[in-house]
Amino acid sequence: MLDKLFTPEQLTLICADLAHLRLLADLKLAPTIPYFVEKPYPIGRCREIRDEVFTLLQTELPTTNKPGLSLLKNLIAKGNPLQKAWGSLRDEYFQNAFILGPWYIDVSNDTVHANKPRVEILPLATSNFTPIKDFAQFVKIARSYWKVDIYKNDVCPALAPYMPLLCVGTNGASWLGAANDDMLNIAINSNFEESKLILNALPTAPVQIIEKWQRVLSGFSNDNLLVHEGDPIAYCDIYGKASPKPDLVKRDAVVIAYSSLPKSV
User: Fold this and answer.
1) Global pTM?
2) Residue 128: C-alpha distances to residues 90, 180, 201 (Å)
3) Do 140 and 233 have their domain in common?
């Protein structure tokens, strides 16, 4: 373990080199995604920033002579892969970061509060960064962080086993949640029992929200997954009993159907 620990001086070097890569990422991203829900870049752009810095690292690390990046390169060479991670930070925010050995590395630390340093490196054990464990935890964070109301997804019940949430923003726009791999895996790995739990716990959306979805979905008559009616919990039971192991074909079909929808309704 000792060979994985960085001194404060080494951490300063790593932060400086990562901050330089972050500036390069900003130069590319800021003109193309200047706002997120009416808030200026970099607010809300932790995934895009993390992914762009990751791409830059793939180019820089093999031939780097920069002191901070060289420290990262040496740690990776000792069998510690640089991994993308998404999860809960102190149960206050969703955050995209890197995990490298015993370290939590955040290159988008200013995407909630823009006055924070761009880069933060902490021991993973004390960072309070954890995977999302269930939909209830996701809902708790999303309500306060995103300022949304959350209802059961009974507008697209055939998608609900995988995406059981209907998020509604303060402007009345709504979208299905949560369509990332981590949350899809919570649904799939529980054989949709976690989806059933949250569907049972949440109310139905207001009538005006449901009517907006009905109008939008009327244009998708060629996709059965989007126009099937019924009880979302019944679909959880149907999908759960259909196969003893995860049905990747069904998962892909659900994601494709979801991707064809507007980003918000």
Assistant:
1) 0.83
2) 5, 21, 27
3) yes
